[in-house]
Batch of 2 targets.
Target 1
Amino acid sequence: MASEKILKQKQAVIDEIKLHVENATSIVLFDYRGLTDSETKQLRTKLKETGSTYKVFKNTLMARAFKDLNIDFGDALTGPSALVYGSDQVAPVKVLTEFAKSHPALELKVGYIDGEIADKNKLAEYASLPSREGLLTMLAGGMIGLVRDLSICLDLYAKEKEEN
């Protein structure tokens, strides 16, 4: 049996994982085998730019933390797994998916986004969504169009009233 000191260290790691999961909006587990050291550094840098963090924990400790949080990833915790977490729902998924296109060794396993488990297909859907800024730009463009159309209508109505 493990000593009390080792058990405390493991519990500290489990608590750290739980804290990250509870504070994150999105979590993605992926297989990182086959990535070189420099590729891993590139990935960490890209993730950091989006406010996301990449960490590697033991699967058994992640499984315990997820069990405590009532998150069931099924068989996703088999083989080497890395954990990415962030405050943006889609940013980590987009970065990992884009990185995986040029680095086939990286394989997404499963995600947990806004309290829901996302399989590979769901992660692919999230990756295809525009960024938050892109969505806000689309919304603003639509609103500007409505205001423009309203101003044209009001102008035409005012000109019609002037003629009468």
Note: Residues 4-129 form a domain with the Alpha-Beta Plaits fold (CATH 3.30.70.1730).
Target 2
Amino acid sequence: MESGKKRRLRKDSFEAALQKTCEGLFYISETDAEIIPFFGGKEIDRSRETILKLLGLEKTAPTEERPFDQFFSRLTKIQDWFTPVETKNAKRFLKLRKLLENNLEDLIVLRFGRIQIDIYVVGTDRNGNLAGIKTKAVET
């Protein structure tokens, strides 16, 4: 594989790889929440309303958009004081990040709600369908 080229998987291979990569992975905030893959419907446009509808969320939900890199920067940075388990988790999040980057376009992070926040890392697959991961955070 040449440097800079994406290594895309077939849709069924991507879905299986995403399921496997997310298995047993947790997002840590004031609570621990599972990382869950999702595969949504066809994206007609990139509007907030369309994404909310495809994700089954209310239009009135407080929404914040964050850069994809920002979401993963804390999760993939290995610190010298990490335990072996923390290092392993950071490497797993790095693998997840690369999998999403290689198979989805226009990746963004959407956060819905206050205090109890639904987090979606969303992109579009080669067929224009929404896909990504979802999790929850508690921030008081």
Note: The two ends are 44 Å apart (CA to CA).
